[in-house]
Amino acid sequence: MTKLVELNGIEKRFPGVHALKNVRFDLHPGEVHALMGENGAGKSTLMKILSGIYQRDEGEMRVKGESVNPQGPRDALDLGIGIIHQELSLMNDLTAAENVFIGREPRLSFGRLDDAALNRQAEEIFASMNLSIDPKAVVGELTIARQQLIEIAKALSYRPQVLIMDEPTAALNDAEIAELFVIIQQLKSEGVGIVYISHKMDELKRIADRVTVLRDGTYVATVPAKETPVSEIIAMMVGREIKEAPLQVPDTSSAETVLKVSRLSRGQEIQDVSFSLRKGEILGFAGLMGAGRTEVARAIFGADPIDAGEVEVHGKPVRINSPHDAVRAGIGYLSEDRKRFGLATGMNVRANIALASMERFTSALGVLREPDMKAVAEQYIDRLDIRTPSDAQEVRLLSGGNQQKVVVGKWLLRDCDILIFDEPTRGIDVGAKSEIYALLEALAADGKAIIVISSELPEIMRLSHRIAVMCEGRLTGVLPGGADVTQTQIMALATARDAAMAPVGELT
Ligand SMILES: Nc1ncnc2c1ncn2[C@@H]1O[C@H](COP(=O)(O)OP(=O)(O)OP(=O)(O)O)[C@@H](O)[C@H]1O
Ligand SMILES: [Mg+2]
Question: Is 20 in the pocket of ligand 1 (CB under 6 A)?
Fold first, then answer.
């Protein structure tokens, strides 16, 4: 059988970065070939070359046996190669249907747009994916999960023979991931070859046939997915063993209550939520996607107005009407959507890390102390292992996971008493994850009060001193963290339809 894709001896350099060194990769029809590696290993770059977005410096590229040289995404699409990008590339002001068919909208005579046909065709694609998205919905108003699904729909609408998925599940919940995997099985049975990039190791076993590992821009190996232990794949990725210290739950029972949230309500999204957070404590928020955890964080941070409820910081009621008020009250929030709220992607790494802490780098006369900024930025680049040629690199040129590390660094540096981290390790590789866990624990030990929202249960269980669980806008219980808590206990609370029936733990 001819291979769909063959890449050999691929080289790619960017200023200051040798991103790909003699890399090879191939793809058979009807297989899922996972591409793995740490943040900055070169995965997205290799796939951007295959999909015509970047041109290789050297090497050979064959599609169905023919030597090819796509000069842009259009050329690659003509060769049957489609890509779902890691960073969402949709137009926020356009509708779902307009985004799917951008540049090839159905037209009536005289060139007028045929809106009815546009919406109908989009509806058909969504239906084939078992998706209920209104084709007329404005994309910027949808959740990132929905946007991700529209991105997938758009790629499928080209009926590609080679489909590259660059972290397609980063923002999806379990049910949506299951739906996506059904679609992948369907595509496989039609002979489509799929390149699958993900940092979620469990997904490998579920859908991948083969795995290729890259490390620092070099090819490490290609192995069968089912037969190779995950630990072996991780070892190939990071070139060392990752040792995780088990969670130590400190006794914070007599520590000061730093944050007290009472009867917080906002429409259906947040219903009567009360909890408190102590100095030195890490409070995890678990729940299914859409349970209202991000909404609670955004309400506390003043990003959305509330209908009712009170917030006390250090025992004093505070009025928070904007993120500015929140930061002044000592509350920091790392948003789950780094692109929209977390980063100034056109600015450099140094400025982004310092962004939320400018007063620290400004002299009494209002002069910015660049050398101090640089020193601190370099410290975080080192601690978080941010792969960048220097602190002066523009953030948009970093790999996805390294951009996320920059946002984490920014909030670690900001001297807030209360820090809310919403999906802090999204898109971050296994090695860097444990580094971030260690940093969060160090911050807590240092007296910060920390909230972590995560859709990954192992992460919640690994980090939380106590675990608050939400379901459909309500807080259904608070569990003690540590070795005794089980996934089953958390899931029981996360799926409790009627909060009154759920065992409500200690709420304060
Ligand atoms: N346009 C660019 N200009 C300069 N450097 C770049 C550019 N694109 C990528 N790089 C660099 O190339 C290297 C590989 O990046 P790439 O995005 O391929 O990593 P990745 O394996 O996809 O990582 P992640 O898991 O974080 O998404 C990184 O060091 C990155 O900073
Ligand atoms: Mg990438």
Answer: no
Query: Rounded distance, CA 402 to CA 381, Å?
Result: 10
Determine the residue type at 192: V
How much is the mean pLDDT over the chain? 90
| Residue 317 φ/ψ region, left for φ over 0, alpha for ψ in the -120 to 50 degree band, beta for the rest | beta
Contact 436, 384 (CB under 8 A): yes
Q: Report the C-alpha gap between 362 and 357 in whole angstroms.
A: 9
List pLDDT tens digits, range 242-285: 677 778 889 888 899 999 999 999 999 999 999 999 999 999 99
Q: Provide the pairing of β-strand 257-266 with 270-278.
A: antiparallel
Tell me which fold the domain 5-238 belongs to.
Answer: Rossmann fold (3.40.50)
Report the C-alpha gap between 25 and 6 in whole angstroms: 6
Tokens 């069968």 — which residue?
Answer: 224
Residue 43 alpha carbon to ligand 1 centre in Å: 8
Q: Which two tokens stand for residue 438?
A: 């260690």
Say if CB 285 and CB 459 are below 8 A apart: no
How many whole angstroms separate alpha carbon 167 and alpha carbon 352? Answer: 24
Helices (H), 201-338: 201-207, 230-238, 293-300, 323-328
**Nearest atom of ligand 1 to the alpha carbon of 45:** 18
Measured in Å, residue 398 CA sits from the centre of ligand 1 at 5
Asked if residue 27 lies in contact with residue 162, where contact means CB atoms within 8 angstroms, the answer is yes
Distance 260 CA to ligand 2 centre (A): 39
388 CA → ligand 1 middle, Å:
9
C-alpha distance across the termini of the chain, in Å: 63
Closest among 419, 407, 409 to 279, alpha carbons compared = 419
Q: Is the CB of 402 under 6 A from ligand 1?
A: yes
Q: Does residue 14 have its Cβ closer than 6 Å to ligand 1?
A: yes
Please name the residue that has the structure tokens 């690659």.
76
Sorting pLDDT into bands at 50, 70 and 90, what band is 500?
very low
Ligand 1 neighbourhood includes 237 CB (under 6 angstroms): no
In the chain, domain spans: 5-238, 263-330+418-502, 339-415
Q: Give the strand pairing for 257-266 and 308-313.
A: antiparallel
Query: Ligand 1: does its nearest atom lie under 6 Å from the Cβ of 410?
Result: no
Residues 6+ apart with CB under 8 A from 324: 302
Q: Residues 163, 155: contact at Cβ < 8 Å?
A: yes
- Is the separation of the CB atoms in 403 and 340 below 8 Å? no
Same fold, 5-238 and 263-330+418-502: yes
In CATH terms, the fold of domain 263-330+418-502 is Rossmann fold (3.40.50)
